[in-house]
Structure formats: C-alpha cells, structure tokens
Amino acid sequence: MTGTHTWTIPEGYIPEESTGPKPEMESHETVCILNTTDEDATVEITVYFTDREPIGPYEKTVPAKRTRHFRFNELEDPEPIPKGKDFASVVKSDVPVVCQHTRLDSRQAENALLTTMAHPGE
Prior knowledge:
By secondary structure, the protein is an all-beta fold. It is 0% helix and 53% strand.
C-alpha cells in the first residue's frame, strides 16, 4: 500500500480559451488519483481561491486498485470552478492514495503540458 490521506495542490488555473478538438485538447486542470488499497477510496476535493470562499467538497470515488483522473473544469456539484481564476485544492481520502496534478494549456496552437506531484500531508 502507498500514499496518504491528504494531498495539497497549491497551484491551479483553468484557461478561459482553448484550441484544438474538445474534449481531448481543451485547456484543463486534472488531479490524478491512484488507489492501491483493497478498498474503494471516497475522495473529497475542496477548492480555494484568492478572492472568495472555498467551493466543495466535490465527492468522488476511486475504486480499489485503480486510478481515476478528474478534470477540475468538469466538476459540477456543488458548483463549477470558474475559468480564468487562480485556485488551489486539497484532496482528502478515507484510505491512503497518491495524487498528481496536471495542466493542459491549449490557448495557443503550441500546447503546454505541466505535471507535478501534489504535496502529501496529514
């Protein structure tokens, strides 16, 4: 088993514009979650902003011994995350998981992809 119960992604931004075919090349932020345990992971994602109250939690499930990728621009409930605004997020899970953050910025024809590990914490 690997991972921890809490992960922090201090950087987030969903560009307002995209080029290329949707949904593959639409600008987005993603949290990639790996669950190596024998139990399904119940995950809560809370999103923080510089100029407003947090949104969340967004509740998701990552099945046992599986990985799931959640695009922040597809999170709807309790409300969509605004584009063009800086944000950060905290992921909490009831079983240990591993989280990675990825951004695809396709505002230009020359796309940019950024990925980094989230910060583990308890």
